[in-house]
Description:
By secondary structure, the protein is α/β, with parallel strands linked by helices. The protein is built from 16 helices and 35 strands. It has 2 domains: 197 residues, Glutaconate Coenzyme A-transferase (3-Layer(aba) Sandwich); 264 residues, Glutaconate Coenzyme A-transferase.
Amino acid sequence: MFNKIVEPEEALRIVKDNSIIAVSGFNMIATPAYLVSKLYEVYSTYGHPRNLFIIAETCPGTPGKGLDLVGKKIIENKDYDFLKGVLIPFYGWVPNIARLVEENVIEGYNWPIGIVSHWFREVAAGRPGVLTKVGLGTMFDPRYGGGLINNLAEERKTCRVDLVTLGGEEFLLYTCPKPNVALIRGTTADEVGNISMEHEGALLNVLAIAQSAKAYPEKGVTIAQVKRVTRAGFIGPRNVQVPAPLVDYVVVAPESLEFHGQTDTILYDPTISGEIAPPLKSLRSSALQLSVRKIIARRVALELTSLVVSLGRPILVNLGIGIPADVASVINEENIDEFIYMTVESGPFGGVALTGADFGASRGYFAVVPMADMFTNYEGGIIDAASLGFMQVDESGNVNPAFLPGRIPGAGGFPVIAFGTPNLYFAGEFTAGERKINVSENTLKIIKDGNISKFVKRVYKVVYSGSYGIKKGQKVLFVTERAVFRLGKEGIELIEIAPEIDIEKDILSKMEFKPRIPSSIEYMSKDLFNEKPLNLRSLVLEALRR
């Protein structure tokens, strides 16, 4: 009589019109793609449920899968009554949903991943929302947009950010309606509804999402997608991630990349779920070829090494996507990974992070925590350093990592990581556009430079506030292949240039503002520009022996 295992339609027909639905998933990691797809099928068959509002913890899908597949069908079928709106931290992997937002068909909201992660816990505890300083002076501040990313959102404000003052200090309060439906994913369910996650690539906020739907005053419904079922009582208590009293229905999904892959491209790999540890040799990627990207990654690795030396201990870091991800390769090449513990937003400590649409998963990690706990490490400055990418930097040190007119990839984990870390190294190429830059003879040869300036008078969207970073006392560098800048109280200062680079021709003429230029500028080490390793391990070991 307590068996909760049902067919998807039986569970999903319980969902009412106008429901607020919380959905787990980091790309395809722990995304209940089968439930999301079947929910749309129920609507297509019966005309209900309609007018749904979805709150995602990150981005529940990848192109053609999960929520993006539903977005594609909405567009093809013009089923515009299905979705009312979405709150999604990162739209980059759900382009069809992004299109619906861009075309003002549905409401669109964007909050940082870390804020949404903590929001589920706050709502589950009966509190009004997340009170934080993250986002002050940025696009999340209601004075500068409040995370409202289209006209419908500005008109309706289903989710909102308010400026509040406590003890004479400014904070932001992030609020949104409490979910009354939770769609979550695990690996195994027993007959009464206990859920384990032993094959999943991360724990994410699955428990908190279920709790948020069950919280007073409206005790909602939790529907869990799994790939297998066992007899009641056969999941060890310490392996239960979502206890049965929080789960109403369990649906068994086909074990396929479309509906229940560990990641976008991997159906199942025990090294991703941490069930076995891959040999260290297999984790060490081959050295990057010498290039502009490697120069930048090496320069960031030098900063991290200096931090290890100055602190006299291993450090905890986060490396973003793009060029910052190449820093991990340099760290491995230099054999200093035992001194630099890397983290991924989804929860893993250590190991090697996967890239592209598989991002969020890792191999060889030594620990994994719920995503909200990982973002506590970032927001609270528990980590020692981070390297993040940039698309635009302005004279005040504000950073825009990805936003352009008509393009809404979403801020992802960037705002919380950039806000909290005490040592912040932005890394990217100096210009954008078609360019050809060779690395030879211990320096750069700029054959054709990009025609798009990345150092602009004013960034399109402020996602990191330079003035707030200065106020907090962060150490902030901007590392490029030809120059390194520091953020100071008076703005951006040029502190290093590549050997044989002409400051006026190759740097200042490509910027929309003039940085502060000290009387003497150092040259970037020539060692960055040749094939030989930097010998960073010896540098660390020598310093730690002192």
